[in-house]
Structures are given as C-alpha cells and as structure tokens.
Fold these 3 entries.
Entry 1:
Amino acid sequence: MEMGRSRRWLKAAVLVVAGTIFGVTLGLASVSVIATQFMDYHILTVKSQSMSPALEKGDVAVIKPADMPNIKEGDIVYVSTVAGLPLVHRVAAVNRIISTLHDGATGKVLGQNTEFRFRTKGDANATFDADEIQAAQFHGELWFSIPTFGLLATGVNVQVLLFTVAGLIAITWIAWEVAHRIRRTRPTAVTVPHGADRSGEPNESGVIP
C-alpha cells in the first residue's frame, strides 16, 4: 500500500516538474519569436570576450528597441559595422552633427537637423572600433543579459535551443504516457489451480474442464 502511494506521489511530482519546464520553455520560445519578428527585439549569443567582464563569451544578450538621441555614453548598444559585422559594444563617445536647412531659392533658414553618431568600444579592447556608427547601423540597446557560463559559447541559436528542449520534453512525456497506458491495459495472466474450473472452484470430477 505504502509503495503504491509513494509511486503515485512520485509520478505526480515528475509530471508537475516536466509540465512546468515544458510550459516555461515553450512560452519563452514563443515570446522570443514574437518579440524578434514583430517588435524589433533581438536575442544574441555573445561570441567573443571583447566585452568581458560585463558580457562573457556565450552569454545571451537581449536587445530592446531604442532611439539614438536617447543613447548616452556608457550605454551598451547593438550595432553593425560598415562590413556588416554585428557588435554589442559600449558607447565611448556621442557625436552630434547639427546642420542648418535653407530654402534653395530664397536662402531662408528652414530649420536645423541633428544627426547622432557613436564611437563604440569593447570593454576589453584597448582602442575604439574602427567605424563611426550612424543611424542605419544602430539596432538597439542592451536590455539585459543572461549568463550561461560558456555553455552557449559555440553561438547556438537561442530560439532553436528553446524549441528543441520543449520538443524533447514533449516527446519524452508522450512516450512515457503511452508506455504507462499500455502497461495498464495489458491483460494480467491468471494461474488456474489444478482441479478448478474457470471460476476458480473445483468441479465435481476434480478435473479442469
């Protein structure tokens, strides 16, 4: 009796833990897809030590949308170089280029235009990055990072990893449930004593029918 009760409690605990992990993992994967596809967020895996110790190789960096005028020196931003190389580096300098707009015919001043440009630098690097970052190269600001202690140092796609984990949990769960149901529906072999009929009672001759 106690053994059966313990097994039922163990089964319930395993189902609760597995269900929780599956739900959280699938939820995170779904939210990450929606955020990156429709809300201009980015989820990146840090691939170098250039921002150590703030960001270590393998850490997950979550980038939120931001406006260049709101970025200040010291912020960590996601940018790309002229060659298209993605960087998550710290803003080392903010340059404001103010130009005056004139009417071509009359020379009348129409207003001013302010353009923002950044110089970036990795915390572990000795010099600034080569490119001055312009608006088209700016993709957002670091929102938060998740340490992975080097587990994702190979640069695996975080969304693919989350969906893979959720899929493995689901497959394992389904397989376990199917096996459990098969064991429950399997007929139990009954040994009929010698001299008993199918009801288990001896017949008049003492011979199994």
Note: The first helix runs from residue 2 to 38.
Entry 2:
Amino acid sequence: MNMIVSTAIAGTAVPAVAAEINDPIFAAIETHKVAAAETNAAQRRMSVFEDELQAKGRLRTADRLADERRKGEEIEAAIEEAHHSEQVTAYAVLDVNPTTMAGLIALLTYACEYDDVFRRRPAGARWRAYKKAPDDTGALCC
C-alpha cells in the first residue's frame, strides 16, 4: 500500500511517497539539498569574515594581516569546492529519471522551491542553466 505523506524539501511541504517506494530521485534531491546547504554555509562564513574585517578597517585585501589573508583564501577555496559539489549534484538530479508520479512531483517541486528558497531567483531559472540545449532553444539536453 502506498501512502502519500509530506516531506520537507527546502523548507516547504511537498508530496512524497512513503519509504516503501524506492524512487532514486528522492536520494538525488536529498544529496543536492546537502550540497546546496554547504555552499550557503560557506558563503555565510565569508560574509561573517568580511563583517569582522570591515569592523577592523581591513576589508581590502592589501590592508589585511597575513593570517586574515590566509583565512580569506581558505574560505574562498571552501566556497569554490562547495559550489562545484552543488553543480555536480545538480547534474546528478537532472540525470535521474523519477520512477513514480510522486518522484516526478517531488522533482518539479524541488526545482521550483530550490530556486525560490536557496537562490532567490524566478522559479526554474537556475535549473534551465544547467542543461540548456546547444541550439539555445531552451530545451533540456539529456
């Protein structure tokens, strides 16, 4: 028996199939959610670091102490790594075909919710950028 339940995706309730259904899209979505959260956390660390530097009057790189430069470089590397991981997991989400109607609904809902919650962009705008057709028709490539 399949029960429809609610699960939180990007902070919003969306329909999902109970655990006995094994649709790979749910795991792909969860993996991307973790990667997106890591990117946002790394960006927040940079923001806090820049606020600290601003308070000390050393926001410009040339004005920073050696340990502040090193910390800034480490945070920037973490942002780059997290962003790369987020992109890889986004491609993985797009490569997974939902095997249930609930999985399809979860995928479409997550794509819209991700754009709204994580990136503050119009629904679907970021996902279209990942796999746009070479002929620029806007169609998704496989």
Note: The chain has four helices and two strands.
Entry 3:
Amino acid sequence: MKKIVVFTGSGISAESGLRTFRDAGGLWENYAVSEVATPEAWEKDSELVQRFYNERRKQVLEAQPNAAHKAIALLEDRFKVTVITQNIDDLHERAGSSHIIHLHGEITKSRSTRHPELIYPIAGWELKMDETCEKGFPLRPYIVWFGEAVPAMDSAIQQVLTTDIFLIIGTSLEVYPAAGLVDYAPPSFPTATTTSSFTQATLKISLPPKLSRSFQFVPLSVLQVINPFGPAHAI
C-alpha cells in the first residue's frame, strides 16, 4: 500500500468558515501578532490571550468539515495516509482522518505553562483563567506561538522523507519552519499542491524538489469525495 502525506494549511479550513491568518479580513486583523500569539503576549496580558483563543475555539466547534477534509479521510481506503497540518482546528479528526500531526498545536486542548508535556482536552469552548495542571500551574492554550519551537517538526520531516506521494493543500508556504517540509520530499515522485483557497477550482501538479517548476493544471474535482484523484491523476 502506497503512503501519502497530505500537508494542509488554513485555506482548507477557510471553506468551513474559519477565516485564514493572512487573508484580508482574517481573524487576526484586529490584533497584532505580538498581542495574542507570542509568549510575551501571554506574560503581558494573559486574559486577553485567553479570551482571544476562547473565541477562536468557539468558532472551531461550530464549524463542520468540508468536502476536502472528507476526501482526504477517504484516501485511507486506498493508501496509508498521514495528514500534517498547520491548522489548530480539529476538522481533519472530525472528517475521519486517523493519523494527524498538528505542527502548531490544537485549539481544543490546553497545556501547562510550566510543564509543556502536560496536555489536556478542553471541555467545551472556554478555558478559564483559574484552571491549572496537575502540578498546580496555570493552563494556557495548546498553541505553538511565534518564537516557540515546533515540537512536532521532526516527526513531520520523517513522514515526508518516507512518503510515496506528497499533497500540499490550502497553504501559501510562507510560514516557517513548516513551509520547509517541501524540501524534504523525495525527488522522484509527483507532488500536488493547491492554491491557498479551495474556492479556486484548480489543482497544480508539479515535480519536486522545487515547486517553482512548471505546473500542469487539472480540475479540483480530482479531490472529490467519490473516487479521490480518479482518472485525472492516477496514483
């Protein structure tokens, strides 16, 4: 059974109504990154940061997986699939994907401020300021903020190094170190990438190691729920 790694970004969740990080009108528009997405922001105003992620969590819980999430999950009927996502939502899980690496954390979970290995599921949308870990330290959102290491990066690299097929969906490949995963793709197999928004009905097919090579354009229908990839791109 061939192995597929699917690398996803915010564009795939935008189709479920979750606004993206960089798009005009995105959810970060009214906040500077330094106010809500850095360790310094938490030290300066933890209540603001907590409130910000509580609102984001509420939106995630109200959102539903879209056809792209479901199509990726159905690939498991024919392939060994690993999803590597930059997204902090749980839409891949709810769509049915079983092996997911979250590079930037999970908004439905909390972690200890002192012991990052202590991670807990959040019941509902609200993480309260007085909640603590089992060792008595405050809990914060389980999010990898700017300036922090990406603990899952090594696992993600190993998956890319050993895959047969690499799909890149819904990301502009501008956020590092995550974007650097493309450099680990083996040089002898097809790589597919979509534009950052699934509203553009185009799938780009290219050959590694560099995505700057010429692209062949095929209909996005190759990622439909029924018969993923189909005759348009036989795998």
Note: Residues 195-235 have pLDDT under 50 and may be disordered.
